[in-house]
Amino acid sequence: MIEQLGNGLLLGLIVAIASVSLSLLYGVTRIVNFAHGEIIALGAVLTLFFSSSPESSFLYLDRFSPLGSSFIVSSIASILLCGVFGALLELCLFRPLRKNNYGNVAVLVITIGLSIFLRHIFLLFASAKPASYALDLQKREDYFGIQLTPRNVQVLIIGSIVMILVGLFLTYTKTGRAMRAVRDSSELASVSGINSDYIITLTWIFSSMLAGFTGIIQGVINNVRWNMGFLILLIFAGSILGGIGTSFGAMFGGFIIGMLVQLSVGLSFMDGHTEAKNAIALALMILILLIRPQGIFGSKERIS
Amino acid sequence: MKDYKRYIIALGLLTVSFLYIFISNETGVARIFVNLLTFAGIYGLAAIGINIHFGWTGLLNFGHAAFMGIGAYTTVLLIPHALGREGVVVETGLPLPIAVVIGMLAAALLGLILGLPTLRLRGDYLAIVTIAAAEIFRLLIRDFEDLTGGVYGVIQFSEALQSLRPNFITNLATSIEVSSSQLWVGVITWILIIFTLLFLNRLQKSPWGRALRAVREDEDAVRALGKNAVWLKLQSFMLGASIGGLSGILLAFNYGTLQVSTFVPVLTFYLWAALILGGVGSLAGPALGAVIFWVIISGTDSLAEIFFENANGQQLAGVRFVFVGLLIMFTMIFTPSGILGKKEELLLDIK
Q: Which domains does chain B have, with CATH numbers?
């Protein structure tokens, strides 16, 4: 079990950041966004496209060649583009739907359609094979008994800093406070002079950028796949465990879910059943919904 | 829109799509038709099950693949079969009709087990729970190889159905050069659809059917009138699940082998696309939607050739799914009541 601790920390971090972004988006817009996993994949795939060497021909049909820029520049550009994509989704799709009073269920079905659409665009453009970034291979080393590569440690540190920054942003900045105000009550927020359309657009941008960041670190730790958006079920599990609509709760829930999935690989009754590791996390999510649907940190009025 | 106009539109769409198939294929048109109509029938039957959940009762079931899967696995494992990898051959088993009934009951039971705790959840939570439950089901089937064959699947079970094939089906299949086993599955499927629709038509007009729709419209009012709304929802969940189980059984016989990869979440999304296209809440809508849906996705193969020279299987599937995604989005945005559905029957603003 202990040998899985490193992997557990990494997956926990990924699911935690993704859960915050999903949960914030849900809180502010009330959209159960099944396409969120695809924005994660977008970040990873764009970075792959920007950073791979121009000679590598494994992706993007054969007509485009990758740009071969440095990894850091590629990552930043991808995160910004994910933000732009989020803004476009809000302006071209979800805002018109909101203005025309489409119900929650209709929007949910539309996000499922969007998710299938985007995921297979990635399949068409980024080939079916898992791909890795052009980073040198590293060996796992021992850090306080936990097996990690030096790059994994960097990812853990950067990821933790991002999470702290997100927390500070939501708690102390004017925009962050406005987001939380719209989340808690959009009517009260607009009475006190907050332009909720503006805040919702900002939330889309912010949440999509976070999702793109998640995709990049997942690509660094594992690899880039067209269907990496399938992580969405674990993200839902994390958000619901911590309390969907919360920020710190979702962070906590996501971390627990990620750890649980990896650590359960080491359990004795799981011998030879590695595929079932996600099943345990999903079962925990269902259990939480049954006994405490608002999640560990959620408040009751959010789910009524 | 008047009802008869909707049927004219439906008929027109069907004619155009069949003409399209005739024109775009020079050879083997009969084979393409039998394949398409068989799959469409099976998907249509499954979508009828979801329609009972969503269209009649307002329950968002995104885990239909699990109901189809448990029906298929239960039935197939009860009749003579062989497990894919170990080559374990089971030569004795129950007669097919009894196995089918047990398969449908198993699906209904899964519906009961899943529905009992979850049906009090709000709409969008129910969607997440059902999709997660279907994934758990699939992962368990995949991992418990001794019982289910795991990724290697179950084989050699078709004989139980094909031995019942009447001679005229075999003769017909030979004369029009199609697979006789698929034609037989297709014929059975459409007969079952007709019986299911006749049965549901009566059910819809019964007091029970009206009570279901009342649950969809206003659960509190139903409670105030002394009906047990939760029990009504459970009954609806079990009925739709057993129809899903039946379609899963047919799907297994159509493929001839039973693979766990058939029951991925995307299967459920396919069914939703067919349902939304045909018209949520309407009786024949899901079956019609499934036919048009299959025509559309078979048409995308020739489209893929435009984008890719020598498209491989994965690229063909990719183009196909890109269109499925767009189809779901555009239908939901522009005609949420589908071809045959009625706008006033559509409850999509579950808060």
A: 3-345 (1.10.3470)
